[in-house]
């Protein structure tokens, strides 16, 4: 019986490692694409904005919900957009239920008096959440192109001039820009979030877009062709990541997406771990929901190549990697004891040790994305090493929380769209305390995260009697990661 259970554990352990290895190979391929990418923006057809006949009408949509701390900053920033007023309208899609509504309404009235075409659009209910608000605004939008910004994004005044020009190509349905981070250095938490997002917005978005593979509109800091939204079936609120959903439906209908790495749109990162938790939960559950909704359509599509299908499937499985990582982590300690008890299974562990190459691949891939933004000096490389292992540890610490989100998504359990609280903080001297949108509840997962911290401490201890230190660094990172997440959740301080 013991040997049978051991085989079951090794099988699950091996399968999870294999999926992680495939994911790392996909990332490596994206790195090759990224490094070989020759920017085609110089030769791409563009609107001539000096010719009044070529200036397209643009609608800017600002979907907001209880954003008291950032609304004034948002509207002041959007009012500075440099674009002919006769070809621009702004929709403030305000689903707020608090006092911010009146403050926003007053500021909008002042902007209207300055000659800006800006509308305050309110709904009786939040049906469909963000997707529902965008869809309702689209029904009355005057623009042929729809730019979308979340409440914490601060586009430069010339943002539209740098982006809308690429819609001269009638096959392009979306232009997406890279996110920047106004509070990158606020804390360890913000630095590792910026690190992960930078990898997505360089390696993944460029790597996929360079070869015509599917990418995704990131929910904000991009522009849609209105015709593309309608042709793809419009916004739908049946997943928590409506942006990923519509992106895949549009590309399956042969619309092209254009990603602009050189156009940065600054935004604010969550500074408190409870806010990061809610954001991570929504993104990872939404990813799994979209896997259920779209993966078969991708696999059976006749208008895309095998390689695009492979990257599409791996893209939709991105969030599910947390489940694989959690399984590998959880089973790594029983695997140590199986290895000691059954010497005849040594061959299996020799094979499994090969999968350490997955970590090496990710280390190399993330370095190239890091240096593209931060620089490639020796000091930057040293900083990168420290940041990579800090990021890796904290990502492991989030693996339980994110795995629950992924499982709910795959099982089809519905949940409400929980917005990420905004803070309007830029330096460590700014305080987040008193933010009325912060959840006061402690996550019930904290108890399990504390137990896992102790569990992986036991894993580190087990290396001594078993005389097997191969997994000691891994268990140390797990112990540190779960300890970090538990402590920060307990103190609500990041």
From TrEMBL:
Record-linked Gene3D superfamilies: Spore Coat Polysaccharide Biosynthesis Protein SpsA, Chain A
Domain of life: Bacteria
Residue ranges crossing the lipid bilayer per the database entry: 7-26, 313-335, 347-369, 446-464, 470-487
Keywords per UniProt: Membrane, Transferase, Transmembrane, Transmembrane helix
InterPro entries from the UniProt entry: Nucleotide-diphossugar_trans
CDD domains found in the cross-reference section: CESA_CaSu_A2
Main location, first listed in the record: membrane
Cellular localisation: Endomembrane system
Protein name per the record: Glycosyltransferase
């Amino acid at each position: 019986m013991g040997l049978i259970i051991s085989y079951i554990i090794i099988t699950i352990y091996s399968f999870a490692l294999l999926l992680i290895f495939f994911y790392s190979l996909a990332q490596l391929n994206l790195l090759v694409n990224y490094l070989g990418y020759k920017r085609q923006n110089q030769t791409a057809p563009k609107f001539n904005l000096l010719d009044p006949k070529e200036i397209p009408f643009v609608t800017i949509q600002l979907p907001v919900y209880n954003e008291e701390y950032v609304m004034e900053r948002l509207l002041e920033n959007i009012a500075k957009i440099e674009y002919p007023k006769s070809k621009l309208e702004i929709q403030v899609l305000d689903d707020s239920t608090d006092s911010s509504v009146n403050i926003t309404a007053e500021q909008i009235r002042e902007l209207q008096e300055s000659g800006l075409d800006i509308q305050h659009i309110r709904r009786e209910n939040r049906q469909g959440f963000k997707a529902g608000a965008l869809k309702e605004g689209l029904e009355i939008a005057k623009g042929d192109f729809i730019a979308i910004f979340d409440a914490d994004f601060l586009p430069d005044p010339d943002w539209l001039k740098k982006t809308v020009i690429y819609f001269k190509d009638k096959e392009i349905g979306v232009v997406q820009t890279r996110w920047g981070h106004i509070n990158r250095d606020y804390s360890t938490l913000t630095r590792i979030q910026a690190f992960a997002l930078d990898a997505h917005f360089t390696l993944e978005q460029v790597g996929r877009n360079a070869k015509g593979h599917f990418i995704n509109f990131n929910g904000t800091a991009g522009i849609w062709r209105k015709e593309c939204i309608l042709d793809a079936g419009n916004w739908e609120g049946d997943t928590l990541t409506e942006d990923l959903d519509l992106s895949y439906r549009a590309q399956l209908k042969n619309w092209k997406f254009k990603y602009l790495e050189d156009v940065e749109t600054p935004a604010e990162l969550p500074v408190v771990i409870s806010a990061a938790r809610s954001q991570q939960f929504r993104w990872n559950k939404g990813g799994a929901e979209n896997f259920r909704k779209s993966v078969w359509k991708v696999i059976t599509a006749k208008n895309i190549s095998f390689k695009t299908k492979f990257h599409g499937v791996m893209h939709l499985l991105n969030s599910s990697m947390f489940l694989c990582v959690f399984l590998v982590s959880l089973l790594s300690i029983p695997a140590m004891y199986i290895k000691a008890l059954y010497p005849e299974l040594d061959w299996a562990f020799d094979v499994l040790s090969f999968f350490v190459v997955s970590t090496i691949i990710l280390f190399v891939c993330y370095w190239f994305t890091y240096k593209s933004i931060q620089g490639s000096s020796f000091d930057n490389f040293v900083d990168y090493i420290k940041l990579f292992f800090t990021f890796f540890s904290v990502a492991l610490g989030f693996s339980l929380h994110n795995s629950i989100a992924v499982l709910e998504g795959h099982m089809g359990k519905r949940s409400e769209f929980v917005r990420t609280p905004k803070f309007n903080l830029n330096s460590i001297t700014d305080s987040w305390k008193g933010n009325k949108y912060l959840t006061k509840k402690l996550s019930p997962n904290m108890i399990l995260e504390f137990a896992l911290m102790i569990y992986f401490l036991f894993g580190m201890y087990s290396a001594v009697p078993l005389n097997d230190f191969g997994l000691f660094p891994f268990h140390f990172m797990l112990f540190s990661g779960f300890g970090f997440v538990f402590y920060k959740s307990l103190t609500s301080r990041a």
